[in-house]
Fold this protein.
Amino acid sequence: MNSINRIAQAYQTTPWRKHLSMGMLVMVGLLVVILASSLYLDVTARAAAYGRSILIMEGEIADLEMVNAHLRTQLGILTSSAVMEKRALEMGFRRIEAGEEMFLVVPGYVPIDQVIANAPAKKIQTVAVSLPRVYTESLFEWLKTQIQKVSLPKQENGP
Amino acid sequence: MKSEYATRYMILGTLFTVMAALIFGQHVSLLFDAQKGKVLEEVRTNHLGSQWTIYPARGLIFDRKGQLLAGNQLVYEVGVDYKSVNDPQTIALTANVFLGLDYYKVKVTVENPPSPNQVYLPLDKRVDKEKIDRLEAYLTPSDRDDKQVKQEKYRLQSKISGLEFLPYLERVYPEKSTASNILGYVGHEDDGTPIGVFGVEGKYDNVLAGLPIKLWVPNEPRMVKEFPDIPEGTSLVLTIDREVQAAVEKVLDRAVEQSGSDSGTIVVLDPKTGEILAMANTPRIDISHYWDFNDMMNKKNFIFNRGVSATYEPGSVFKVLTMASAFDKGVVNNETTYLDRGVIDVGGVTIYNWDRAGHGKQTMQGCLQYSLNVCLAWVATQLGAKDFYSYMQSFGIGHTTGVDMAGEMSGILKLPGDANWTEADLGTNSFGQGVSATPLQMASAISALANDGKIMTPHIVRAIIKDGQEYFIEPSVSAMPISAKTARTVSEILARSLEAEASDALVEGYRIAGKTGTAEIPVPGVGYTSGETNTSFVGWGPLDDPRFLVYIWLEKPSTSIWGSEVAAPVFPKVVEQLVLLMNIPPDRYRKASN
């Protein structure tokens, strides 16, 4: 028994084995750091890319809103009084003179005066007021959240 | 060994101590140097991100039928980004060919920045979207282009690097000068902020403009947050109908031309609601290009909207108010007669009729029919100064109507007790002399006769549109100076007066009430010696169910000085258009349908 212990002790304390063991530990540590750094870099880079996309899309939304406003006004210009009158005259219509009009008595008819204006469509409210955390948080922030979740006592469901 | 390291420790220790001392010193200096701290804070903030101010699209303006009167058009600011410039000559050539800018001016500007630190300089503003689209289409390679053409386009893109296009919305008015005096326009403050000027744009500037939102946009893309939803400015629906407005403007333009008047104004009101159906003025401008009319607008006597901002002595149309007050107070009635000798003394001042003649025994209808100054001065004395001015104030004379348009004037009504009031004013005020009012004030006051004694607050906005919902504005009564009975009695007298006179104001098929007005224009400090007049006419109808009240003012006509010859004939021309566009059948059809 003693001899076995001695052999085991001698094996463990062999310098080259000690160095190998230390080297392996350092390598493992390094690997963990590299893995974590890669993950962090990946998540951060993607978050940055999404952030940039959001900025670009916000710009596109603003441009489209301006184009919509422009087109709406162009429609107003194309249907303006002067343009419509010109088109009507070109099509052979003319303004009636006083006395040319004919009125018919329609019992029970009440003219409608309240015309609803061609109001701009209600803007669709975006569902999320802010971006989900997944697009903005760093890996460390994510880890912190996960740890907090684990450390907090789970809430029991009520009856 | 220890002494060997001691020196090194000493050096390191000293270095760290000095560094710590420097940091501490910097902290202390920042504590006492606020300016430096502010600068450093600004540098830090600039590195972190930037503050964006986002202006919502300005609200639209519609007429009562939903036709667009004011919208927003996409235009561009063209500028040069000096850091990115590669080829000033190509930039100048492109700006000249595609955008119509001056080649040499652009080239010189691009080649010579105003200062070494100049980053950006605008070359032109309000560049049409179509021009930018054409340039973009030219520069963007398409599938049809062969390789060489594509390469050439990429090369050109690189060469015009530094030529920037910044889109923004500019106010535009599809109807051009129609209703320009009602709408006003959108100018710019010194810092470039848009601001509504005159009319509805001025009065409702805050509502139309919406609330600009300040956003912090970080430079770190990871920190970017979604932009909040920025609501557009509130849109407005006006009470005017663009067809009615355009038709009334046409009639006015012709009347001003034919009568050789300096200017003209026509106000059309719905007496039952106070809605302004049309308000035409001369001169008008194309408000989309208001800057082209700066010379005209900078003239001393230029008034953008004479309907609400120009006050004048209205003359005989004012007699309607005097007579209505006397009837309402009961000092005169249909049987009252007055022996007109052509002259009367009130407060030491002798008042004559317009023809300096006496007209004998007259009923109150005769007094209005022949527009007798002497009779109306007598009526005012019967009423007494206290009641006369009390009624005039109830009619809204001397103070603003509260109309929702910028630049409304109140006119002048001197009151007993005022330093410059004399008893003679009672006599002259009774026929519209020595008192001033705007056309809208007069129309609003006289509308009491067309609406059973009630004056509705005149207004131009019929509804507002916010977040896609339309909210209608309820008409409100601003005053009830006379009873319904008085209103109907005096209206009937005025209708008979026109019919008895076979006035040029009569409209075939419709019974109307109305009154002409001719007022001499006073010369400051001299009196009524100019020989020039303001001619007016006020009329409303159909008499049994008034749907419109038309007030006409032609300033200094040259073909005739009389309202009956210049302003009255304009009334049927306006009404002929109104009844067609507002679908008001002649009396016989309406009575048949009732």
User: Anything to note?
Assistant: Chain B touches chain A through 57 residues (CB under 8 Å). The first strand of chain B starts at residue 49 and ends at 54. Residues 2-32 of chain B form the longest helix (31 residues).
